[in-house]
């Protein structure tokens, strides 16, 4: 018997319990509804949930962990039958069925909200263990402070994170240089100047940019932006012959970040009270003076938070840099040269043939943990600033 | 100081400067929006112009002789014996058919017979072979087939390959293109809509003309099913607890901070989680839609929770109070009154979360969905279990094709992107319609 058959049987049993329990309790009182402790339907609900929730829990956890896979279907059936029999016996006129059903539902709700905690624990643990394995084989000082990255699957690799971090930060910073002014000005124009018609066209158009998957941006970098920059900028200026470069990835990533910056800043600018604008305008300031000297300073903490969130998004971005930035680990200042990032190397070390005993594969987990810590710090800091600011004018 | 200088009717230098600054500032804002819209336009045109060609395909119509001496020497039509004739055995038959067709059309060419054979795709012999094995009684006669033209010929009719580029290309020549043009004029080559691209499985490195999205679409569909079945109930349950029941204490604060952080964790980190926990620790099948769906579920859960909480929050407290006032329990007030009123918002948020999951690539690369898969994955099989068979996904297929050498695959990758964008467009349109139609303002 397979797990899915026994799960279907268990679901069938819980539906049966849902229909049998009300009939039984009405039979016990000879159809007198007034002597029941709850509506007959609640008896059904309680009995059905009694069977359904424990069996699903066991089947799901057992199925995920893969333990006792031969016995599991049998265990599920046994639990289902036992709970069925028990809940039918439990169904008596003086049984507080609704309270029982609601207690079970609350437990399920709590369990569901704990999934978020388990996910975080899973993320941290999964990377922590393999990272510890990695540092057993490879010295952590070399990992964090060596400027050479040349993995070699026969051993003796140099696995220094510095060139990868340099590429990541260089690309993210350049992308933000494009995205922040454009996104910020777009947000200012949309919230302060644009009429309703302009808003109704421009806002959805910018939001479309946010809904496009990153692989599309990656392909755009690969087939359009990369060759264009090479043929019209890099090659004539003598700066390089490579289509994949820091500039390619950064330009495209900048486009990706525009809606991110603009929608966050839009919310924050709109949260600045109208009275502050009116006060400034009343003193004779022009609209742009009001924005520059009153609105922006008031919104500044929130805008900084938005930029930090955008930076964290840029640092963790994968597909654009995989397709646009190249694979060569390099410490260079030339923006038209191919460079690589932490995320690109995580992908390249973990796809294809991987051997989970070699440091060349395990380094990906150390890279992942580094990435996670960096983005986590940025996020926590940014969310703290944004939240603190939002409360300011409420 | 003269009176004219300070007149209300003429603007002084300082005001002029301030007004100019105002105009400049406004122009900056407008140009920022124009740049953003321009970027969107360039992006879409670039993808559409290369990708739309993938939906048309060039076919050669020829009559292929199917002699018994070559295909079934024994003459007993035993399938197992006939299978011994590989596609290499079918190759010369196709070439003969094409040569006859060229002669009949009165076209002359300087190409060698071998080069003429190269006009036909390497996939075509397999097409003919499969047809013969399925219908053994066609052997002995001849049959008209619509066969795929090779990638370069296909590219010529779509403008990707020109006479100049062909002269430098080892795989084709200007003469071959000329011959193809003559065949087209004679009506033997047509370019038609390419259903094959949407339904066929992937093809190997050498034959971009045969590559299709069938397996990838199926894989994405399976993963979306997993995400919907798991993420919607879990997300809604978690939001109901956090919004309606949870006491305000440290524990719920922790969960809240956690969820907003999880929403901003880079997607590739979820891929590492999937690889370490679902594949290495729990030993699920690599590249299976089940693992992909689980990873994407964990990834979209925060999005769904955040949007569900927003729509629960927008239901006014008077609804809850009224329900409680007539004697409903807290649970009944939530499930009978608040949840139905919040349902349109929840659905909209879920569809947007699904759309995000559909386009996600990076975590799927790490759990092995880049593998080359030609078999359509079954939803359930006895060996692999539910959604356990190897598969790919739409965005990963795009990535996969960009990594291949043949330029024909660039067109395929852009075509796959168009397919992906069409799916996203449909999902977002449904979300917008739902929101317009059912959303209530209080």
Tell me what you see in this structure.
The complex is a heterodimer of chains A (394) and B (442). Chain A has 394 residues and is an all-alpha fold. Chain A has helices at residues 3-28, 40-65, 72-90, 97-137, 140-145, 162-193, 196-211, 214-237, 246-271, 274-282, 287-316, 319-324, 342-350, 359-392; strands at residues 149-150, 158-159. Chain A has 2 domains: 3-121, no CATH class; 149-392, MetI-like fold (Orthogonal Bundle), CATH 1.10.3720.10. In chain A, strand 1 (149-150) and strand 2 (158-159) form a beta hairpin. In chain A, 47% of the residues are buried. Chain B has 2 domains: 55-193, no CATH class; 214-438, MetI-like fold. Chain B is built from 19 helices and 5 strands. Chain B has helices spanning 13-51, 68-71, 79-82, 87-104, 113-117, 124-134, 151-157, 163-167, 174-185, 195-199, 214-245, 250-262, 267-281, 289-313, 317-325, 330-358, 362-366, 394-402, 408-438, and strands spanning 56-65, 142-148, 189-193, 380-381, 385-386. The longest helix of chain B is centred in the N-terminal third of the chain and has 39 residues, at 13-51. Chain B is extended. The model of chain B has no long low-confidence stretch (mean pLDDT 88). Chains A and B meet through helix 4, helix 6, helix 7, helix 8 and helix 9 of A and helix 1, helix 11, helix 12, helix 13 and helix 14 of B.
Features:
heterodimer, A: 394 residues, mainly alpha, MetI-like fold, 14 helices, B: 442 residues, 2 domains, three-stranded antiparallel β-sheet, two-stranded antiparallel sheet, extended
What is the molecular shape of chain B?
A: extended
Question: What is the H level of CATH, i.e. the homologous superfamily of the largest domain in chain A?
Answer: MetI-like
Structural class by SSE content of chain A:
mainly alpha
Mean pLDDT of chain A: 89
CA distance, first residue to last residue of chain A:
60 Å
Per CATH, the class of the largest domain in chain B reads Mainly Alpha
**Which range best describes the helical content of chain B: under 10%, 10-25%, 25-40%, 40-55%, 55-70% or over 70%?**
55-70%
- Share of helix of chain A, binned: over 70%
State the fourth-level CATH superfamily of the largest domain in chain B.
MetI-like
Number of helices of chain A: 14
Largest sheet of chain B: 3 strands, antiparallel
In total, the number of domains of chain A comes to 2
CATH architecture of the largest domain in chain A: Orthogonal Bundle
Q: How many strands, which pairing sense, and closed or not: the largest β-sheet of chain A?
A: 2 strands, antiparallel
* Number of DSSP strand runs of chain B: 5
Strand content of chain A: under 5%
The CATH topology of the largest domain in chain A is given as MetI-like fold
Secondary-structure element string of chain B: HEHHHHHEHHHEHHHHHHHHEEHH
Q: Strands across the major sheet of chain A, in which order?
A: 1-2
- Assign the CATH class of the largest domain in chain A: Mainly Alpha
